Amino acid sequence: MSESSSNIFAKILKGTLWVLLVIVLLIIGLRISLKTKPVQSFAKNKIIEIVNENLTKEFSVVDLNGDLWKEVRLTGVHVGGSDTLAYIDTLYANYDLFSLFTPTFRIEEISLKQAQINVKQVFYTEDSTAVFNVQEIVKPDTTSEESTFQFEILDLNISKSNIYAYSPDLLPDSSISLKEIELKAGFSYKSEIEAELTKLNFEINEGRLPEPISFQASGTFINQKVTLQDLMLYTGRSLVEAKGFAHLKDSLYSSDILLDPIFTKDIKAYTGSEIPDEEVIVGIKIRGDAEHIDLELSADASFARNLEATATIQFREQATLTQFGLRGDNLNIAALTNDSLDIQTGLFQMTMDGSVNQNYENADITWGFTVEGIRYEEYNLRRFFGSGSLKAGKILANLDATTNGEENVRINSTIEHIFDEDAEWSFGLWLDNLNARYWLEEAPNTDININITANGKGFELSETPWNFAVANTIMDPRNKRFEEFMSQPFARGSTKPLIFGKDQLKYVYLDGSITKDSLKSDGFVRIKESDINFDLKVARFLSEIPSFSYALSSEDLDISELDASKEFPTSIDFDISGEGSGLDLETLTLKGIAEVDTSLVNGSTINYLDAEYNIKNGILTVPKATLKSDIADADFRGKRNIRDEKDPENVLSFDLELKNTQPFA
Fold it and tell me: Stretch 657-665: mean pLDDT, rounded?
C-alpha cells in the first residue's frame, strides 16, 4: 500500500471514530438527561398538555420522576379540577423504549395505586335522561385516520382503589361503591385485541345488604374467544359462581352458573317481594350459537324439590321457542305466598314442542302436563293432567282431574280459527262420581254423573247463538229413538242416575241457547217414572232490568218416588207459569198462574186448583185461588211482604170446607 493510500485510510478511520464517539456521547448524554429534572419537568408538562387537549375535564399531575429511558412514575394525578372526577396517588409505567422502532411498543408494567373515581349524576336532558359527570369526558376525535399504533401491556396492576357512584334517581339507595379494587391483567392491541385477566377483586357496598358483596373474576380474550375462567359473588350468605366461554368467530357460547346457596333474604332485599326465608340451590346452563340457544335450570328448595326446566330458542329469522320442559316435585305454593294460597303438589311435569314466536298466529305446538297429589286447603286431587295442540289456528285441548275419592272431571275443547273474531268452538265437560260430601261437610252423600256441552262462534256474545246442554245422558230420553239408541253396545252403561242421599234422578236433560240479548232453555227431570218439565226464556239478560218467562209442568207426578214422601203416593198434573222482569226484590215484577188438574193425592182426587200470583215492590199477592177436591173445597187470597214477615198488612183470608183428612193421616 502506498503512503498516500495509508494516509487516506487513516483519515477515514479517524473520522469514523470521531463520528462514533460523538454518537456515543450524544446517546450517553441523552440517556443521562432522561434522569434529570429539567427533562422530567418537560415531559410532565408535555403529558399534561397532550391530555388536556383530548379531555373536557382539567387534568393535572403533581410530580413526575423516574428513569425515562425505561420507566415513568406520576404522582398526584388529578382529573376534574375542583370537582374531583378521578384521583390516582401513583401511576407507574415500565417500558422498552427501543420497541418504538418495532411494530409493537412493549410496556412491561403499568401500575395504579390508590386510585379513586367519583361518578355523579349532574343533571337531566330535555327528554329526562340522567347525565353523569363521566359522560363525554373525552373530546370527539375529528381525524378520519385510523391509528396503526400497536402495543402490548405485559402486566397491568391496580391496587387499593375505589369507585364511588351517586345517583338519587337511578340507584335505590342513591349511592354505591366498589372498594379495595385489585386487578392483575395483560393486554395487547395488535392485529387483534388480546387480554388476560388474572385477577379482579373488589367489594360492592350499598345499603340493602348487611355486608359488602365480594366479587372475584378471571378470564381471557384470545383469538376472538372470550373465556370466563371464574366468577364469584359472595354476599356473606349467598354464593354465586360462574364460568363459560364465547367464541366470536363461530358464535359458539357456553356458560355454567351455580348459586349454592342463595338466601331468599338477599332476593327480598332487592325485589321487596314477600317470599319466605329459604336457602335455595340453583344451577343454570346456557349453550348455543348464532342460530339457537339451549337453556337448562335446576333448583332445589324446601318449597320445590328437584326442579328442572329446559328450553330451546331458535334465532334464524326471529326468536322462536321450539322446546320447553318443566318438572319437579313437592311444590309448596303456601310457603311461597306466606300461606295466602294454600296449595301443595307432588310430582309435576310439563312439555311443549313445536314453534312459537311473536307471529303467534303461525304457532305450531303440542303440549302436555301432569300434576300428581294436589292439595288445596282441605281438598285433594289425586291427579291432574292435560294435553293439546295448536296447529294452523286450530286448538285441541284435553284436561282430566281425579280426586282421592275417585271423582273424575274430563274436559275436551276444540277451537277453529282461534285468531279470528268468529272462531268456531266446542266444549265438553264430563263429571263422574261427584260426591258433594267430599267437598262440603254438611252436604249429603251424592253420586253425580253429568256432562255439559256447548258450541258457538266468537268469544263475545253476539246475535249468533251459543248452544249448550246439561245432561246425564248423551241423548234426550224423550226422543222416540232413545231406547233403540241406548241398546247399542257403545251406549250401554253411558247413563247413570244422579244420586242425592237416599234419592235419585234417573234422567236430567237441559238444552238451550244464549245470545247477547236472550237466554233460552228447556228440559226435564225424571225421578224414576215421573217427569218434571221446565222452560225458561230471558230477554235483555245483561241489562239492569231483564225480562223473563218460565213454565214448570208435570203429568202423573208421584212424589212417593222421593224418600221423604215414600208413603205418600200421588198422581199430579200441574202447570206453573209466569213472566216478569227485574233482578232483585227492588226491581222484580212478576205475574203468574198455577194449575192442578184431575190429580190423585194418597188416593183422594183433586179436581182442580187454580191460583194467580203477583210480585211487585217486594210484595207477594195472591188475588184469587180456588181448590176443588175430595179433601176440601176452598177459596183463598192473600198478601205478604217478602222482606218483612211482621208487616201488619200481611194477610191471608180463605173460605174452607174440609171434607176428608184421611189422605194426610
Answer: 66
Q: What's the grid cell of residue 163?
A: 369507585
How, if at all, do strands 59-60 and 71-79 pair? antiparallel
In single-letter form, the type of residue at position 510 comes to L
Q: What one-character DSSP code corresponds to residue 332?
A: B
Q: What cell was used for 187?
A: 393486554
Listed in sequence order, the residues at least 6 apart from 584 whose beta carbon sits closer than 8 Å to its beta carbon are none
Confidence of residue 20 (pLDDT cuts 50, 70, 90): low
Q: Using CB atoms within 10 A of its CB, is residue 645 exposed (0-12), middle (13-18) or buried (19+)? A: exposed
CA neighbor of 217 nearest in space, from 228, 231, 204: 231
Give pTM, 2 decimals. 0.74
Query: Hey, what's the cell of 500?
Result: 242425592
| Cβ pair 212, 184 in contact under 8 A | no
Rounded to whole angstroms, the Cα distance separating 89 from 76 reads 5
Contact 469, 453 (CB under 8 A): yes
Report the alpha-carbon distance of residue 401 to residue 372 in Å, rounded.
10
CA 263 to chain centre: 21
pLDDT in the model for residue 45? 86
Residues paired with 284 in a beta bridge: 257, 297
Task: Reply yes or no: is the peptide bond before residue 38 cis, omega within 30 of 0.
Answer: no
Backbone CA torsion sign across 124, 128, 130, 133: negative
- Map out the domains of the chain as residue ranges: 39-139+147-278, 544-665
